[in-house]
Amino acid sequence: MRRVFQIAAAVCSALAAEPPLVIQNAQVLTVTKGSFRGSVVIRNGKIAEAGEKTLVPLGAHVIDAGGQYLMPGIVDCHSHIAADSINEGSVSVSSMVSIEDVLDPEDIAIYRALAGGVTTANILHGSANAIGGQCVVIKLRWGKDARGLLFAGAKPGLKLALGENPKRQGYAPAQGRSPRYPATRMGVEDVIRQAFAEAKAYRQAWREYQDKVARGENAIPPRRDLRLEPLVEVLEGKRLVHAHCYRADEILMLLRLAEEIGFRVKTLQHVLEGYKVAKEIAAHGAGASTFSDWWAYKVEAYDAIPYNAALMLRKGVLVSLNSDSAELMRRLNTEAAKTLKYGGLTEEEALSLITINPARQLEIDDRVGSIEPGKDADLVLFDKHPLSSYAKVQKVFIDGELYFDRDRDLSARPEREQRRKALVEREREAEKKQPSRTRDRDTERPQ
Amino acid sequence: MKSATTCLSAWLALAAAALPQTVLIRGATVHTVSGPDIASGSVLIRDGKIAEVGVVVKAPKQARVLEAKGLHLYPGMIDSATDLGLAEITSVRETVDIREIGDFKPQLRTIIAVNSASEHIPVTRANGITSAVVLPEGGIISGQAAVIHLDGWTWEEMAARPSVAMVLQFPVIQQTPAERTGPSERRIPYAEAKKRYEARLRELDDWFERARRYQRARQAPASGLRPDLQLEAMLPVLERKLPVVIHAVREKAIREALAFAERQKIRIILAGARDADKLAAELKAKDVPVILPRVLELPLNEDDPYDRPFTLPAALHKAGVRFAFATYSSSFSRNLPYQAATAVAFGLPYQEALRGLTLYPAEIWGLNELGSVEPGKLANLILADGDLLEVRTQIKHVFVRGKEVDLNNKHTTLYEKYRNRP
Asked: How many CA atoms are closer than 13 Å to the CA of A183, on its beta-carbon side?
């Protein structure tokens, strides 16, 4: 049995690597170039052609979509899956830590999100600190190792956080901890301004050093500061700022502070009161990545409205919908549908909120976010229109490779269940021989 | 002066609209739920109730006629588990009244803590939810659940059933506390957690035993018994007049809850039962209804099929288990129909999904006046511009007890205000 699988796997990978793949007879929703009934041709992991009539290349592997809906892979601009930990909450400026160092490719949330049509995700540091850690963009290549998840070429990010979360350690410190500055929104601004002032001085020290070296003078290099380097990268436009925020006042504060310091906020995350300062956000040029309809879970979310995405979009903001949750991540398509209901967006606009717009926000829109020749073949096949409540993901491709197949998932279940039972049985036997073996281990597991 | 009169007459018109009226809804696709759909049907509302349903219904004199061609008429939806009115802002303890201190509190009544001015109520009903079950959550016996209609000036006016069930959190082996009181809360060792759980199981049986003794003592003539409000509240449960909602998630807890109900001879309704699919045959045999856990949820176990929460309603339906949908929330209650839609995508017949939002909860909670479009039932009705379960569908009119209610709410108000910001 196992041998058969190995051979099948070998055959599959040989086929995937070599011949082109054609998905035929699909209702293709390109997002940027309209919709049509036709085919998409995939070669070497890229979309080679998409149109009503395309030629089937010789030796191509053909999938008949049977009139089902093909859309670009969903891009989630705010997620915390596939990360072993997300908050270095001991300091208010933790820009030296990086999510890339703690990627967990075995997190089952990756597979579950794939089964919801997500192919790319921005994995962010948490929001405990005014300046959080470094963020990384991944593709949900389930089965690959941590390195295999990385979205090569995507710009790295830096998390900032405003409002209730970063000030909490100031007014309600965890047991056994002393209060940590800041405790107010005033302090949050101060922490960010101070850190960037340091970063500028640091950059200046390096520039002076490099000038001296260029002039052939003797010079001692400044001591490297791993905390300030990511901030310098922000100042130089090499790293994107993703800022957690809720209230209109703090959003406006950050826009003005960034303008004063000299960088652009790439995305405002959550940004639930963004609709109150939409024109200021648009003028600054920040993107807004929000929830469809979450509200009232905290004070700063009490004025959140489901019209937020549509209102901001209509006022000229680049808007995306994100999940921030392994559960919500499984159904971003129907989250997008809520903007048809709340604010009257068109189908194409609604789909753009979970595809091309987040891709633009992450500056990866030359690679993903729409069905266009030259882009990565990251595609999702739904049985019904993806904005319908009844739509189910059937197949998901990343770089032209099939990473999720509902039929395959269903047919593998009996064998998986047998394997599970065998494992449980083995543990039971071990438990009998050496009582409480498993339980002791359980209690020792760190939190 | 003129504007004052205009104002006054506008107010009078609004006040008149707020009274139960005679309304004829004409030409809608009527989804009766209990019977077949009527392609172009009419429904007459009188005295807060459905007076007539049919293809042709004559408009009585002075009746308001609502032309509903192209719209779909459904019974109002019932959310079978919510915190509506009990929780305003979940992270602010001062605005949350869900869990009381103490393990045995059968005398507590959620109905009196329902804040009729909560912003969640108009937000929820704007999406077609017209009634909701409000459940307490603390300790072992948490208190009494209520059914409310999502319209009324006071909780008293909102009450459909001030006390519809007793709520019981079935004890489980728990290494982390149910409600985190601080971030540094420690996980306790398994052996200790098991001991705690066994003690709680004993306490629960003891509690019922005490209640029975109290019941007997109370029936004895001239016993000089001093009334005990806590035990007094248990009497309707022992007399099988009040069902017990048992919150039990995993297989072990559900199994034990079923045995407990048998032992104590009580009527039960299961809630939150995420492993109910494993015990479907038993639930059917014992005719125990299930308030479904959230369908839009992550699987319970890491190695569960990715779609297990989505297929649970279909599995229960197939086994013949009675069920109803619920959100266990206040801020997400408006998304109730989408729980049912996902269940349909993963195998539940459409009509069953519709019933799980209307008729089935009415039957499970004993709300005979609700759940379908039939003469004699309360006129909790909604008119939508499409399929109720589709996210994009707009709810156009909502009637609660025959009165058309305002669909404006905090969200529409803020939307209008900021849309018009120059």
From this structure: 7
Query: In which residue ranges of chain A is pLDDT below 70?
Result: 1-18, 435-447
Q: Do A416 and B338 touch (CB under 8 A)?
A: no
**Total domains present in chain B:** 2
| DSSP annotation of B378 | B
Instruction: For residues B297 and A61, give the distance between their C-alpha atoms in angstroms, rounded to a whole number.
Output: 36
CB contact under 8 A, B394 and A175: no
pLDDT value at residue A442? 44
- Do A439 and B389 count as a contact with CB atoms less than 8 A apart? no
Q: Give the pairing type, strands B77-82 and B129-134.
A: parallel
What pLDDT does residue B222 have?
74
Bridging pattern class, strands A131-139 and A393-398: unpaired
Quickly name the fold that domain A74-368 has.
TIM Barrel (3.20.20)
CB contact under 8 A, A298 and B296: no
Decide if B190 contacts B175 (C-beta within 8 A).
yes
Rounded mean pLDDT, B27-47: 97
Please indicate, yes or no, if residue B6 is contained in any of the structural domains: no
DSSP B249-262: -SHHHHHHHHHHHH
Residue B5 pLDDT grade (very low, low, confident, very high; cuts 50, 70, 90): very low
Phi and psi at residue A395, in whole multiples of 5°?
-140, 145
Residues A20 and A18: their CA atoms lie apart, in Å, by 7
User: Is B7 contained in some domain?
Assistant: no
The nearest CA of chain A is from the CA of B105 a distance in Å of: 27
pLDDT at res. A441 = 45
Backbone angles phi, psi at B381, to 5 degrees: -135, 150
Q: In terms of CA atoms, which chain A residue is nearest residue B329?
A: A297
Length of chain B: 422
DSSP structural state of residue A216: T
Are A243 and A160 in contact by the 8 Å Cβ rule? The answer is: yes
Q: In the predicted model, is pLDDT for residue B318 greater than 90?
A: yes
Q: How big is the CA angle at B327 (ends B165 and B85), to the nearest 5 degrees?
A: 65
Task: Say yes or no: B250 and B165 in one domain.
Answer: yes
3-state secondary structure of A136: strand
The per-residue pLDDT for range A48-68, each reduced to its tens digit, is: 999 999 999 999 999 999 999
Q: What is the pLDDT of residue A431?
A: 87
- Tell me A248's DSSP state: H
Q: Give me the interface pTM, i.e. the ipTM.
A: 0.93
Tell me, what amino acid is at B340? Answer: A
- The boundaries of the domain holding residue B285 are 77-368
**Spatial separation of the C-alpha atoms in residues B247 and B257, rounded to whole Å:** 9
Rounded Cα distance, A185 and A191, in Å: 10
Domain segments of chain A as ranges: 1-73+370-411, 74-368, 412-444
Residue B302 has pLDDT above 70, yes or no: yes
CATH architecture of A1-73+370-411: Roll (2.30)
Angle at B145 between CA B144 and CA B150, to 5 degrees: 145
Rounded CA-CA distance B58/A350 in Å is 43
Give the C-alpha separation, B137 to B82, whole Å: 11
Task: Please tell me the distance in Å from B106's CA to the nearest CA on chain A.
Answer: 28
Please return the burial class of A186, using the count of CB atoms within 10 Å of its CB with bins 0-12, 13-18 and 19+.
exposed
pLDDT of residue B19: 57
Claim to verify: residue B150 and residue B41 sit in the same structural domain: no
Query: Which pLDDT score is estimated for A251?
Result: 98
Q: Encode pLDDT of B155-177 as tens digits.
A: 999 999 999 999 999 999 999 87
CB pair distance less than 8 Å for A293 and B335: yes
Both tokens assigned to B95: 């605005």
